[in-house]
Design brief:
The complex is a heterodimer of chains A (about 350) and B (about 290). In chain A, about 25% of the residues lie in helices and about 35% in strands. Chain A has about 350 residues and is α+β, with helices and mostly antiparallel strands. In chain A, helix 3 packs across helix 4 and helix 3 packs parallel to helix 5. Chain B is mainly alpha-helical and about 290 residues long. Chain B contains 14 helices and two strands; from the N terminus they run αααββααααααααααα. In chain B, strands 1-2 form a two-stranded antiparallel sheet. Chain B starts with a helix and ends in a 5-residue tail after the last helix. The chains are: A alpha+beta (about 350), B mainly alpha (about 290). Bound molecules: adenosine-5'-triphosphate and magnesium ion (MG). The site of adenosine-5'-triphosphate has 12 residues of chain A, from strand 2 and helix 1.
């Protein structure tokens, strides 16, 4: 169990700043996702924590000990590479036992732990195969087993699910989550998929261009993004400009909307209002009070859920609901928006 | 299905295909035929196509073929030359590997100023005639007391072999990502363990090919060895030269020639086996 801290960590490649003063604290046993678009510095951050890259500035602490100068071998971290990096000339068994044999663990103990680990990842029957003879999911399990067997104090995974198909990805997600809870290892994983980050992580660190944009629990990140970029990256669809009339009332292009007050957003401010599509109720009859009138212009049916595009005059608003009923296109509707689920963002 | 088809195809060669294979075989094996005949001749005078007298006809006068009798006797110095050749070849190969592995790693992975110029200059020793290098080295080595010594010859042999080796290993290193070594380090392997357990085995096919090539080049270098050996160190090529310097290929020279090819052939067979097993063990590519 190890607490990981990044204090004002910077990384520069020549003149190019890849990571700009990132502060991050990962609690012991926590599962944290590094989320961000391609090239934002996720892998670089991970490599610095692992010790494969030396920070240009700042410090990396494990349990309050500065490890910035410690060589990789001594950090006792585990890392699963994006392309697994299984040793092609070794069998599954040899691959998994590698970390123990280089540490000079006694043979009997290696055999025991190997058995246990192959059991955990259910690869016993493939033990004598070479990596080239495995499927993507199996290779990934080998990579995870090879890392876990060394009992790392911090486990890192670089886009562990990127190379898998959708169904396998779901399975592996649950598998990783289970393992992480079972072993209680402080885990950091990289992804550029926000759904994956939210499903797996206790907290998510969103990184843009080497800056830490927000570090929060998934629900807060989703409902209360720190700024427009984060909201956009988290897949927000309905963001409309507005002027604050009062602390709890915003005047938008589709009429006045009641909002939950947010400190710093007082009357007279120009703001952006974020309406989460699943937090809007679509009414066929006019509600007694409030309600934004509009007309359904498109319907996208996804089986369990359905998306409506509602033309409300100045803006088109997307509404998502369970597909318990289907509203026809061209139906006049009213949108009932829960003030607690309206989020204010700075313009 | 496809496998079956391939086998069927290869077992039923058309006369044309056989013809071309025969031509190739002729060019490769042809040069050995006169050598073999010569070495079993008792007397083979110009302009006869075949020896006038074979050893078999004169068995009462010689126990073994004359040439072989001589070649296998201590007077021929064949044994001494073989040991020298193999010894020098092995040491050159090991030193060459030790120099070229780290160099190839840098060339394959790092960017630095003047890299392309450096790569260009790598080929220079292959362009400059061996004789020129040999004479220049000889003058220096005589001063340094290295002429006629093993050290001198080994240094000289490194000159034409390093460029080949570096090129070969650079190509191999380029195919090997950093991931594997980094992963090994994270798993706790020391530098030496990474090299021994991950890098070398993964580079093995390339290293074997490079080592084999270096060894063969070294065992075939005549001019540099001749200049720098000063007649004191005899290797198979220089021994052969001293036998044919008179302008005739007599039976014993033919025998020596055949001996000269032996280390190479043995090595080829070993490496062929080795590389095949290696490829087999790895499963399918990757
Ligand atoms: N060794 C290096 N030398 C120079 N620039 C580098 C190096 N490694 C990374 N970079 C740069 O640093 C930035 C961050 O790279 P990084 O690999 O961390 O991105 P990432 O967030 O992992 O992206 P992806 O999702 O595509 O993997 C990129 O612009 C990249 O070009
Ligand atoms: Mg990356």
């Amino acid at each position: 169990m190890t607490k990981v801290q990044l204090n004002a960590v910077r990384k520069q490649f020549g003149g190019f700043v890849a990571i700009e003063n990132i502060d991050l604290e990962i609690a012991s046993g926590e599962l944290v996702a590094l989320l961000g678009p391609s090239g934002c510095g996720k892998t670089t951050t991970l490599r610095m924590i692992a010790g494969l890259e030396r920070p240009s500035g700042g410090a990396i602490l494990f349990d309050d000990q500065d490890v910035s100068e410690q060589p990789v071998q001594d950090r006792n971290v585990g890392m699963v590479f994006q392309r697994y990096a299984l040793f092609p000339h070794m069998t599954v068994e040899k691959n998994v036992a590698f970390g123990l044999s280089v540490r000079g663990t006694p043979r009997a103990e290696i055999a025991d732990r190997l058995e246990e680990m192959l059991d955990v990842v259910q690869l016993g029957q493939f033990r004598h195969r070479f990596p080239a003879q495995l499927s993507g999911g199996q290779m990934q399990r080998v990579a995870i087993a090879r890392t876990l067997i060394t009992k790392p104090s911090v486990l890192m995974m670089d886009e562990p699910l990127a190379n898998l198909d959708t169904k396998l990805r779901g399975e592996m997600r649950r598998f990783i989550r289970d393992l992480q809870q079972r072993f209680g290892i402080t885990t950091i994983f990289v992804t550029h998929d926000q759904v994956e980050a939210m499903e797996l992580a206790d907290r998510v660190a969103v990184i843009f261009d080497g800056h830490l944009a927000q570090y929060d629990a998934p629900d807060r990140l989703y409902r209360q993004p720190a700024n427009l970029d984060v909201a956009d990256f988290m897949g927000a669809t309905n963001i409309v400009p507005a002027a604050m009339k009062a602390d709890d009332l915003a005047e938008t292009g589709v009429g006045a909307i009641r909002v939950a007050p947010r400190p710093g957003f007082g009357a007279g401010e120009n703001v952006q209002v974020m309406l989460r599509s699943e937090a809007i109720d679509l009414m066929i009859t006019q509600p007694t009070q409030g309600g934004v009138p509009g007309k359904v212009v498109a319907r996208d049916f996804f089986g369990a859920s359905v998306n409506y595009t509602v033309d409300c005059g100045a803006h088109r608003i997307t509404v998502t609901e369970q597909a318990r009923r289907l509203v026809e296109v061209d139906t006049p509707v009213w949108l009932d928006i829960d003030p607690d689920r309206v989020w204010l963002l700075a313009s | 299905m496809a496998r079956k088809f391939n086998i069927a195809l290869s077992s039923r060669l058309s006369p044309f295909q056989k013809f071309y294979l025969l031509i190739i075989a002729g060019f490769i094996l042809g040069p050995f035929i006169p050598l073999i005949i010569q070495s079993f001749a008792f007397r083979w005078a110009w302009p006869d196509l075949l020896p006038g007298t074979w050893w078999l006809e004169q068995r009462d006068r010689a126990m073994v073929p004359l040439a072989w009798d001589y070649v296998l006797s201590p007077y021929s110095r064949v044994w001494e030359a073989t040991v020298n050749t193999v010894l020098i070849g092995s040491i050159v190969t090991v030193i060459c590997l030790a120099i070229c592995l780290p160099a190839a790693r840098v060339l394959a992975r790092e960017k630095f100023r003047g890299k392309s110029a450096f790569e260009f200059f790598l080929s220079l020793p292959l362009i400059v005639p061996e004789a020129a290098i040999g004479i220049a080295l000889l003058m220096m080595f005589i001063r340094l007391g290295l002429a006629g010594s093993y050290v001198g010859i080994i240094i000289a042999h490194l000159i034409p072999t390093i460029p080949y080796m570096v090129r070969m290993l650079t190509a191999v290193y380029q195919g090997l990502g950093r991931d594997f070594e980094e992963q090994a380090m994270i798993l706790g392997a020391s530098r030496w363990q990474v090299l021994r357990l991950v890098t070398l085995p993964m580079l093995l096919p390339g290293v074997v090919a490079g080592a084999l090539f270096t060894f063969l080049v070294s065992t075939n270098i005549f001019l540099l060895t001749f200049f720098l050996g000063q007649g004191q160190i005899v290797t198979l090529p220089t021994l052969l030269f001293s036998k044919i310097a008179g302008g005739t290929l007599d039976a014993s020279a033919a025998g020596i020639t055949l001996i000269v090819t032996l280390p190479g052939i043995i090595l080829l067979i070993i490496s062929e086996r080795f590389i095949k097993e290696e490829a087999f063990g790895k499963g399918f590519g990757n």
